[in-house]
Amino acid sequence: MFTVITGAQFGDEGKGKIVDLLAEDYDIVARFQGGDNAGHTVVADSETYKLHQIPSGILVGATALIGPGVVLNPFTLTDELNALIERGISVTPENFGIDPKASIIMPYHIAADTLGEFSEKDKIGTTKKGIAYAYSDRILRNEIRFGDLLDENRFYEKLNDLLPAKKEMIANLGGNPHDLFPDEEAKRLLKIGRDLEDYAIDVSYEINNSLRAGKKVLAEGAQGTFLDVIHGTQKYVTSSSTIAGSACTGLGVGPSQVTKTIGLVKAYITRVGNGPLPTELNDEVGQHLAEVGHEYGTTTGRKRRCGWIDIPLLKKAVNLNGYTELVLTKLDVLTGLETIHMCVAYELDGERIDYPPLLTEDLERCVPVYGDGNGWDEPLGDIRNFHDLPYSAREFVEYVEKISRVPISYVSVGPDRDQIIKVDVNRQKDTRCNPINRKLF
User: Name one Pfam family in it (predicted).
Assistant: First the structure.
């Protein structure tokens, strides 16, 4: 079985917790794109883990792999590995591997990202982690790969060939090229290469062999659908493809192997950085979502922009990823709101549309059309049966399921690992939860 899990919004949908939950049923969890600009927070047994590059499945005993589609920061990876080991998590070549073809995020990538974002008039809101510049070098065939850290001669040969152009780039961006790459940084990278040499593995070969042997593989994406470099809200996107199809490219697995695709959608919507967010709330409800939902970036600590759930965007996410099931997260955060709003369509230039326009500039001009539903006051954190949810909460879930045409298999009702409801997709639906027969939504 080969399952792909991605975020259906702008990221931060709670993938860390859900991957950690599902990983108990999988032999391998593999990361297929992105870098340490993404962060997953997992709460297990009152312990909080913040992971940026290592798949969270390692916390429950699954083999964690970093695929060749990833851009890797060796310094933060080492810190992350050491932090796990210090907390008693086993990390060995038997349960963790890195593909030698993974590109390395070099110090000059981070320097250029910082300088470039500072000088941009129309800022993207980058994390300044060097991701875009690392992916650019991959496309330009000027990358240094993890495998190069395992061969000192090859590493210095590539580095010496690249450094003159990188110093010129930094100078053109207003930086000091003389501080770009001191020799001690090169030595630190080579030491990391020596320390991690036993973790080098052909991820494509390992996954394909595992699938042939009947093992289960979970492919984990970073960020979310609408940060996809092709299909997202350009230019306010990340530098890699975040949709489900990217898992095949980023891991080296044929599309015929994909068994199912799982989409994570938050009960509201958030975004970090700039770019359109049609339902954004700059009021007390937006503050409620941010504070109750702890909407602060795992990587940057920045407060996330919050808004009501956006159904037109969800419809497009379903098309882009081919979801076979959805997981609805953070339903508990809506508790205490008297009225729940849901964006069911947009108005653009006086016309009502129920699907996002092609251009980012047009999406920025869209005015959300809302449907309203009743809120609830009952806390959800201890509920484990779907039918025990307040009626208004069930109504919300079943409408999302109906309008997206994708079954919801889990509903998350809190940050802890066990605060989850497994939903019977073949359950008897509440006939009252029917958008045709009511004015709500």
Answer: Adenylsucc_synt
Looking at the fold, whether 417 and 268 belong to one and the same domain comes out as yes
The answer to whether 13 is annotated as binding is: yes
167 assigned ligand-binding residue:
no
Helix (H, G, I), strand (E, B) or coil at 213: coil
Cβ neighbour number for residue 5 with a 10 Å cutoff: 25
Q: Is 174 annotated as a binding residue?
A: no
Q: Is the pTM of this model over 0.90?
A: yes
Q: Which residues are designated catalytic?
A: 12, 40
**Do 390 and 302 lie in a common domain?**
yes
- Tell me the one-letter amino acid at 397: V
Report how far residue 326's alpha carbon sits from residue 139's, in angstroms, rounded to the nearest whole number. Answer: 33
Q: Are residues 171 and 301 in the same domain?
A: no
Q: CA 250 to CA 129: how far, in whole Å?
A: 20
In tens, the pLDDT along 254-282 reads 999 999 999 999 999 999 989 999 999 99
238 marked among binding-site residues: yes
> Who's near 99: CB < 8 A, 6+ residues apart?
65, 66, 67, 68, 70, 146, 200, 201, 202, 203, 204
